[in-house]
């Protein structure tokens, strides 16, 4: 008879009996744990608010209304230590002891800290002064768009911020020097643009004898005029602002201009981040952060090429609808040059553009209840980009509302070059930047009651911009884009985002030149050459960012198609949009999990 060895089995049984069974928590215990962790999240968010006077202003808080943020290089190290401390705290928390909503917050917050620690290596791999959003234009724009003046103390806070320009610019210049020591200098084309913008800030009164008033003084005087103050007090405050502009703002810009003129001599024409030390590793890191996926540069490049080919085929169908004879390139040229697709380059033409944009948003607003169960409370307005930054600013963008409702959301249209703002793209642009695009998503996120504040202000580019691009397609499904040329405009906008996948990876991974990137856009899109130039220059100074739009849109559409296929008649579009929107901005992998759970719950 064969012997059976039972000793190992007995050992396993004994070890198993010694293991402490995991305690099953009651709902009340989970709620208590969740409440405690949410209190921690709020405490950390309030600490960030306290450390950032600029964030305070964006939130409508006037505690440090005369101060700027800390722009010193030391702040990076402080932020790293803060992330390490937070991660240490989170590792002591069992996510299974939390309710479902708090478990998601835990997951997102922990990922943010881990990313911050990993990204520290690349803290000097960006261009703080660039033609898209550099501090030289960002700080004046902040004063103009964010710093309201509702009292004398608010006006004094504005003046204090003007007086602090020299210190802030010293910190910025020091950061630029550190980057150069690490081999990070902007390409040559950046310098003329930022120098031009910087010089524009210190033009006009009180910087020189001129009938023209400088941008910042004009803003200060306009805001001050709305206050019920004596003329004597207004003149006193205006004189103080003028003095701060001359004695503080001008020297700060003079120093920055001198530094940039000097650095310009050492700049090269090389466009991609492959030129940096560990440039390839940095770009892969950027793509992961921007897309919140594991897609490689090569995979993103191929997706782009395939999408460009598909959209070209759909455009050829529109050519047939409008009885156009010729090639797709001929059609592009027709759309680029025919006067019927452009407003005149005049004040009247610009007013007409803004009026039409408002009407498109208003028409879409009436249809929102057919598509959404949840609508934002915040209002939205349409504005032209201010003259001082319109030459280098993007084509259009959205500025979020104040969380306290004191400032509406804003859809900015750049009307500097009317030949770059065709009417056939206006409808899709209004949907993307306004309703149901960024305004719906961002305003709803800010207004959520049951999520921590840190999530209301989190920004995942692939999610946010993916939603914006998805929002260009959504109105077509309910009968908008009746004009085939407007539908061509929608496709042109999507094509533009598909080309971004090709060109961004081309420049930063395949070593394309600036000129090769511009040529690709010119050959494959109907956009003006000025659009192509701006876009390529954006790719160069914001590596990876522009890949987010199409990757994000594709993921949202993929998830919706999966839900429709699995749920059939049980699919509800309003519910799907709630699943997408009511957790605020989240990474695409988390969005996929959420939609999957929703599908299972519906089954």
From TrEMBL:
It comes from the Bacteria. InterPro entries: DUF885. This is DUF885 domain-containing protein. Pfam families: DUF885.
